[in-house]
Amino acid sequence: MSQIRIPIYDPRPEVEALWDELHDAIDGVLRSGRFILGPEVEAFEREAAEYLGVRYAVGVNSGTDALVIALRALGIGPGDQVITTPFTFFATAEAISAVGATPVFVDIDPDTFNISPAAVEKAITPRTKAVLPVHLYGQAADMEPILELARAHGLKVLEDVAQAFGGEYKGRKLGALGDAGAFSFFPTKNLGGFGDGGLVATDDPEVAEAARVLRAHGARKKYHNEVLGYNSRLDALQAAALRVKLRYIDEWNARRRAVAARYNEALADLDGLVTPVEADYARHVYHQYTVRVKRGRRDALRRRLTEAGIGTMVYYPVPVHRLPVYAWPEGSLPQAEAAAAEVLSLPMSPFLPPDAQDEVVRHIKDLLSNIT
Ligand SMILES: *Cc1c(COP(=O)(O)O)cnc(C)c1O
After folding, report:
1. Can you tell me the distance from the alpha carbon of 295 to that of 119, in angstroms, rounded to the nearest whole number?
2. HEC profile for 38-56?
3. Ligand 1 site: residues with CB under 6 angstroms?
4. Which of 13, 178, 275, 368 is the 20 to 30 A CA-CA neighbour of 362?
5. Would you state the pLDDT for residue 174?
6. Residue to mutate (ligand 1; options 60, 61, 64; most atoms within 8 A of CB)
């Protein structure tokens, strides 16, 4: 096995850059004796809401829980259909199933990899209760036509913003456009903590209140549980660290955009490789930098890059509708299936050294001209 010298993502430079601030923040929590919810979590919720431009933010245990709790807070449950994209992490669909609803998968736009609004429209039935777009890789789904359809048909819109903290659609922060937004602070996300964490963002006071009740065993008042909820609170240590990192998110997203621009230039016009497209409505934050490798050469390229010590990933090799738990027929969502066969995510982080990036580019150019 060859050693990976250039990992797809390395969290350590981010920690090093903020070492003293993180240390002070964590020290403060240890001294406070308040480890679950409490003042740090409340402060983070306030600051995150202000950053996103929403009235309420509710810290929870993970991005998956943020989706589950937001769906329930929006009143989605058994018998309901939720239209979503199959080209996403499994948790998006899993959350829909977890609340007893049925995910209805529709195809994606091949340029942005995000849910196609025209496909959403065709899938609406009398049982449709919500649309769940994902802002994949850090880029906005095309929200305006989705919000219009939702208004016309009385549907809720929940945004999966797990990969796009700080990303924008027509100048507005993602997660602030629909009825609610679900965020993840899993360590590799573009706003990552040091463990699991998540957030529900909303402008609706009733949705925010329902989410607060659900995250605490369904109790508004301790030991007076009203509904079946969850143990899903954000830890104070995560909140304290995230408050520090939130102050740098714009700077770091800008760095990601600069790394992406450098890749775009170096990899432009390469035969059989398609660089990511930034839609005119989007400010892409490049949680992932993902290319398409055409003509069936993706897996060979990936293998050779691994041998050269360069880490890459395929997000996602099997679209969710084709996984055994859902098992939709092959060929039913051709754009998602084509994307799954072609995508390759390259090393990306705010601190990717330019010489490492140059090496990635050099290997891709060499290898692509040598793979037949
Ligand atoms: C990471 C991710 C999730 C789940 O977040 P966790 O914090 O890992 O539970 C949901 N949706 C998408 C698109 C993700 O990338």
Report:
1. 26
2. CHHHHHHHHHHHHHHCCCE
3. 62-64, 88-89, 91-92, 134, 160, 162-163, 184, 186, 196, 198
4. 13
5. 98
6. 64
Ligand 1 atom closest to the Cα of residue 197 is: 7
Structure tokens at 180: 């609610």
pLDDT band at 369 (very low <50, low <70, confident <90, very high): confident
Answer yes or no: are the C-beta atoms of 197 and 61 closer than 8 Å: yes
Residue 136 pLDDT more than 80?
yes
Encode pLDDT of 74-133 as tens digits: 999 999 999 999 999 999 999 999 999 999 999 999 999 999 999 999 999 999 999 999
Q: For 260-283, what is each residue's pLDDT tens digit?
A: 999 999 999 899 999 999 999 999
| Backbone region of residue 94 per phi and psi (left: phi > 0; alpha: psi in -120 to 50; beta: other values) | alpha
d(CA 260, CA 256): 6
CA of 198 to the centre of ligand 1 (A): 9
pLDDT, tens digit, 9 for 90 and up, residues 226-260: 999 999 999 999 999 999 999 999 999 999 999 99
Name the residue at shortest CA distance from atom 2 of ligand 1.
162
Pocket test residue of 87, 108, 139, 160 for ligand 1, highest count of atoms within 8 A of CB: 160
Nearest CA to ligand 1 atom 7: 63
The whole-model pTM stands at 0.98
Q: Compute the distance between CA of residue 211 and CA of residue 57 in angstroms, rounded to an integer.
A: 9
Kind plus residue range of the DSSP H or E element containing 308:
none
What's the pLDDT score for residue 320?
A: 98
Q: Whose CA is nearest to atom 6 of ligand 1?
A: 63
Q: Which domains does the chain have, with CATH numbers?
A: 12-246 (3.40.640.10), 249-368 (3.90.1150.10)
Average pLDDT of the chain is 97
pLDDT band at 370 (very low <50, low <70, confident <90, very high): confident
CA distance 175 to 200: 9
